[in-house]
Write a structure and sequence with these properties.
By secondary structure, the protein is an all-alpha fold. 81% of the residues lie in helices and 0% in strands. It is built from 10 helices and no strands. The chain is globular. It starts with a helix and ends with a helix.
């Protein structure tokens, strides 16, 4: 692993852990990852296509039934999580909406949909195209799934402080494991972004509609 790559990954790891004490550190982690993707793509260390940012690879990735199922699984799981959460915890809806209260700055439907897409891209591109990709090339595959999911979950942990926190955080973590596996299998971060985006929109519809 190149020293520059290792340095950026250390910054991402440290930033994600430090985000327990302030979101600015997670912003640093995401920014470092985006810088790594940009530099790697421009200077040929990891092309944008190899990274999984080629639109043409979406159709190819979804031709495999396994990948298509993986893309749909988070939507099914989120429906199950909401049903279980509402049955077990009176404050589940408030817990589920807690993170969005800190992130969403738009209220109009169209701008809200685009804003969620933007946030999804900001999460998935650095953690998949840079962090997971480099972990998978240099360490056992299981680490490439668990580590990004763990660091992303640390970011939202301070936002959950109710009795429903366990199920909210567990669902959050499991979904990111699935998206990591989907990226490893399909090689397309755009497929992951689409799956993540649709799942998040469905999640909000369920939370607001209940």
């Amino acid at each position: 692993m190149r020293r520059s790559t290792a340095f950026i990954m250390i910054v991402m790891t440290a930033g994600a852990i430090a985000s327990l004490f302030g979101r600015i550190w997670y912003i640093l982690a995401v920014s470092a990852g985006l810088l790594g993707v940009l530099v790697g793509g421009l200077f040929g260390r990891t092309s944008f296509r190899e990274c999984g940012l080629a639109p043409a690879d979406i159709a190819a990735g979804l031709t495999a039934r396994k990948n298509l199922l993986l893309a749909v699984v988070p939507v099914v799981l989120i429906a199950g999580e909401v049903w279980i959460g509402v049955q077990l915890y009176s404050d589940y809806i408030r817990c589920g909406l807690a993170i969005w209260d800190h992130q969403l700055v738009f209220t109009g439907t169209a701008t809200l949909v685009l804003h969620i897409l933007f946030l999804t891209m900001l999460e998935e591109i650095p953690w998949r195209c840079y962090y997971q990709l480099n972990i998978g090339q240099n360490f056992p595959g299981i680490a490439a799934l668990i580590l990004p999911a763990t660091w992303i979950t640390l970011w939202v942990m301070p936002l959950y402080g109710t009795s429903a926190s366990v199920i909210c955080l567990l669902g959050f973590f499991i979904r990111r494991l699935i998206w990591g596996y989907l990226y490893a299998e399909s090689g397309s971060v755009l497929i992951v972004i689409i799956s993540h985006w649709i799942t998040t929109l469905f999640y909000l519809v369920l939370l607001v509609g209940i």
